[in-house]
């Protein structure tokens, strides 16, 4: 009996919901867009010029060092050499790729070494997970890259000092042992 009574009450309740007259929709009045006022134009400020990196004559700095390197004791002609990217340990900007290219060109002119091609170095860096901008700051990383490339020697170069007085230091290392066969340095004007 309770069930029947519950069903009847539910039916009445549901029927009463449909008896409520529908409400008319709320009136809509169109709104006018706000007028945006632009701030007055300011005069353009001049963009400051970035500091100019002075041009360095790498060939004149590197040539005497490469001549010493070619005559170094313990260096075997015809062996494979990796010219590592020049490191910048100064407090300023330095175009290290230009320096690296100048070293590579000078060494190739001596015809003492076979130089690892740039593309091969690039692909080896990618394979080892090193970006092209990574300046392998450790000698051990340079030797590891040289071993991967089957080079016999690594030419490791670092520019140090400050903007007023900079110096390039170069070291020729034997890849098998890490022994430094030759070392030289020169001032950068």
TrEMBL record:
It comes from the Bacteria. It comes from Xenorhabdus cabanillasii. This is Penicillin-binding protein activator LpoB. The gene is lpoB. It is a lipid-anchor. Keywords: Cell outer membrane, Cell shape, Lipoprotein, Membrane, Palmitate, Peptidoglycan synthesis, Signal. InterPro entries: LpoB. Pfam families: LpoB. It is found in: Cell outer membrane. Interacts with PBP1b. Belongs to the LpoB family. One of its GO terms (molecular function) is enzyme regulator activity. One of its GO terms (cellular component) is periplasmic side of cell outer membrane. Regulator of peptidoglycan synthesis that is essential for the function of penicillin-binding protein 1B (PBP1b). Its main location: membrane. One of its GO terms (biological process) is regulation of cell shape. Residues 25-49 are annotated as: Disordered. Residues 33-45 have a biased composition (Basic and acidic residues). Residues 1-26 form the signal peptide.
């Amino acid at each position: 009996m309770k069930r029947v009574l519950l069903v009847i009450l539910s039916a009445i309740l549901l029927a009463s919901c449909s008896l409520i007259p529908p409400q008319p929709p709320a009136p809509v009045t169109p709104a006018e867009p706000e007028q945006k006022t632009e701030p007055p134009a300011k005069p353009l400020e001049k963009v400051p010029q970035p500091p100019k990196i002075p041009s360095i004559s790498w060939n004149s700095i590197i040539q005497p060092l490469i001549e010493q390197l070619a005559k170094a004791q313990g260096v075997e002609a015809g062996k494979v050499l990796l010219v590592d990217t020049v490191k910048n340990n100064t407090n300023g900007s330095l175009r290290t790729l230009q320096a690296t290219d100048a070293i590579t060109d000078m060494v190739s002119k001596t015809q003492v070494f076979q130089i690892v091609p740039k593309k091969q170095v690039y692909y080896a860096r990618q394979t080892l997970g090193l970006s092209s901008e990574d300046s392998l700051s450790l000698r051990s990383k340079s030797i590891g890259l040289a071993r991967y490339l089957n080079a016999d020697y690594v030419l490791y170069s670092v520019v140090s000092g400050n903007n007023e007085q900079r110096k390039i230091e170069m070291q020729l290392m034997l890849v098998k042992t890490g022994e430094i066969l030759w070392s030289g340095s020169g001032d950068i004007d």
